[in-house]
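Predict fold of DNA polymerase III subunit delta; 329 aa.
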Amino acid sequence: MDTVWANMLDKQPIVSKMVMNSIKKSRISHAYLFHGDKGTGKYELAQLFAMSIFCKERTTVDPCHQCSDCRRIKSGNHPDLHIITPDGASIKKEQILHLQKEFTYTGLESNKKVYIIEQAEKMTDNASNRLLKFLEEPSQQTTAILLTENSQAILSTIRSRCQLLAFQPLNPKQLEERLQEEGLTEANARLMTQITNNVTEAIEKSGDTWFAQSRKLVVQLIDMLQHNQAEVPIFVHTQWMPHFKERLQLQEGLDLLLLWYRDIVNYHLEESSAIVFTNHYSKIETAAMYWSLNHSTVILQNIMEAKRKLEQNVHPQLVMEQLTLQIQR
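Predicted 3D structure, encoded as tokens:
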């Protein structure tokens, strides 16, 4: 499906309105810096912007998507649109020099030229200084679009020459829809939106065997806490701790546990639409019969306290042993 400005307005209303206004009024800046998390639509918007600049058939702010300009931009081989990506770990001075050289030629289709620099924070110091010189002598028909997840890593002198546009994280509903478009099941997409608001990270995690095992261990622990409490210390020692070896990993395990007890609370409150582990609904039902609303709320506070202790460098094994004892009370 072709991306139009209405789609971008749904995802990034503020940024899209600003760019659309500059197109409508023919007041396109010489340089833009799009900054925001991965998966928030920076490249998608940059490509649509370039199409709106080059499309000769457009009658509104939207490009026609059918003309040769639009088609070549989509396929990545428009002669007057240049896209720079890191060469290995960085963007090198030679890449910017090559870009400058290309821009000394007259535009093949028109006098307009656009360049997009992806992961602009990966420019070497030499590349940054070279780009700065390029930005200081803007050609009337040239538009630069820099994309970054970390605007603070860009030279302040470059930032000051760009119009800065901040991309907001996707809201959970949008993120859930986007993840389903990427092939995740509804249940998986819902869980991932609780874990991260980064599309790429969510897709990676959903296919990660370590994370799949983490989910299994959480379900096993919940079952054991209800039906086989005598085995809990052994389970923590032989299975839970060897899997969640690092502090950050254990924090993730506690986050999943937190979501489980939140689901139990939501079940008690009859907020079934807020339940995250939808594919374990019968287990949540059983758990809600075991833990009352008050007890579940106290357990949520215990888990939050355990997370704080981990941050304060309390021994991880001790944190887990204390937490499971508190849940069993």
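The mean pLDDT is 91.
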